[in-house]
Amino acid sequence: MKGMPPIGSAQSRVLILGSFPSAISLEKGQYYGNGNNHFWDIMGLLLGEPFPEEYQARLALLVRYRIAVWDVLASCERPGSLDKDISNERPNPLIDYIIENPSIERVALNGLRASLSFIRHFAPGQKRKDLGIGSEIEWRPETLRGRGVLVARLPSSSPIPTREYRTAGEKVMTWKAFLLPPAS
């Protein structure tokens, strides 16, 4: 199955990468289209304003805050929506996207599978342990011609609870620390 195109603008400074859209998201043609996913709740808490119900208005708000959204994977095989069932993955042209959008300075990996797929396809020399939740690395692939981009794995917006994170409210501080760092 095939994923969706990126959303964002030429002024985006943050790129949030999921692993691959859920079956509901693909059916609706909307990122984080499953109403149980915490993504839109996290964005509302993070940005301090409620997110509109209408999808296009949500996208416009992300663009206003210079946030782009895409997935690490362009296509894969997966029965259902669970990341653990992904096989035969093919990556999106992430490096080309970052070259075409030079204002991107941070890449947020939404959950473990996005992180593992990112390492596999774009940072094979990176160790998994270096991308623990909230950990930042500077990613400098040769094709970016010396340019570095900060990358961090954030708690998954999936509604499936973990020991550390159950609600959007418990996840938002880690997201905020990376996406909206204090001005220096």
Summary of the model, kept short:
30% of the residues lie in helices and 19% in strands.
Description:
The chain has a single domain (14-179), classed as Uracil-DNA glycosylase-like domain (Uracil-DNA Glycosylase, subunit E). The model has no long low-confidence stretch (mean pLDDT 90). It has helices at residues 23-28, 39-47, 55-64, 94-100, 112-122, 168-179, and strands spanning 14-18, 67-71, 73-77, 87-91, 106-110, 136-139, 149-154. It has a five-stranded mixed β-sheet with strand order 2-1-5-7-6. A two-stranded antiparallel sheet has the order 3-4. α2 (39-47) packs across α6 (168-179). It has 184 residues and is an alpha/beta fold. It is 30% helix and 19% strand.
